[in-house]
Design goal:
single chain; eight-stranded mixed beta sheet; globular
Amino acid sequence: MPGRERPLGLLTVRAPSPSASARRAVSVPSTADVVIVGGGVMGTSIAFHLAEAGVHDILVVERGELGGGSSGKPIGGVRAQFSDPLNIELGQRSLRAFRDFPRRPGTDIGLDTVGYLFLLTDPVQVAAFEAAVRTQNALGVPSRMIGPSEARALCPYLTTDGLVAAAHSPDDGHARPALVVRGYARAAARAGTVFASGTEVTGMDVTGERVAVVHTDRGPVSCSTVVCAAGAWSARIGAMAGVGLPVRPIRRQLAFTVPLVPAAPRIPFTIDFASSAYFHNSDDGLLLGLADPGQAEGFDTTWTPGWLELFRDVARQRAPALAEMETSGGWAGLYEVTPDHNALIGRSDAPVNFLYATGFSGHGFLQAPAVGEIVRDLYLGRRPCVDVEPLGAQRFRTGSESRPEAHVV
């Protein structure tokens, strides 16, 4: 049938959602070495890296369809321009993996290395970005500060009125999250990973210091390790195991212009830092986004066209032509936000077989390749490629020094 893809384990990666009766007809395995909760880009990356390392008995449980949560966004930015050295390292390592994706695991992900361009409108921002660029450069990121005229040369939509400076890195860009999810899932499935879509985790049995059973609405699964990669829903999953994961869901919205004639120039992923408004190429038009500062917490993913006026108000000051462009719909998804806008990555103290990778505050897609490697190494008892001990969830209980990330969009 046109539009359908080869089944992977218990799910079809690209097909209409199966009926409830069809899902009930197939039971999940009763045992697994590793149960990964969440079938987005983080869960599938972890599954791929574990399977590649020779871990065979892996079950990925996803309540909807693979990539149907926050990973379902049409285009995701990839960058190493951060203020925190840990995030720089995670972004840089992941950029290398994205560039290598056609070879490993073997999928075209629509990677477009157009660069990231942060627009800065006051001296305080400029000083902070200058310090971040020095840190990035020391870690091998080719970012630099540029003036308003050069920023406009990179992105002709801009007006330089009120623009003080900009930060640019040519190695950044954007790719297609759905293709990344599919590529990781296919490779993991070929190695024996089972994917259970349309399956919800309903509870966990903790015996002593270990999770012994993961309960789903399609049956219990005895396991030796659980990995929480449930994104905005991670607090619920952690609570089932008695693990505090301070993750809050916040809606983010974006819109698409109609196809542009003449075609849009090829521009960087451009961000007005003060307002969080951003835009970049998308197929035959542009993608427009902005974080609504008044957005309440919650799991609502309804797209509301009125939100677009917030973007237009900013565009009139920074990129006037965008304010008048006709749009053709939009999309809403969830950010998984932590108190310091840094991820939660690690192994819980109790139960000791509960690992987690969540709370990326909008950076999960771009950090997924590196985090897949890290969780693999934590599971195998290896020293991870990046020291993520400061990102453990315990930092919010023990009063550890906060590591707030400043480059949040």
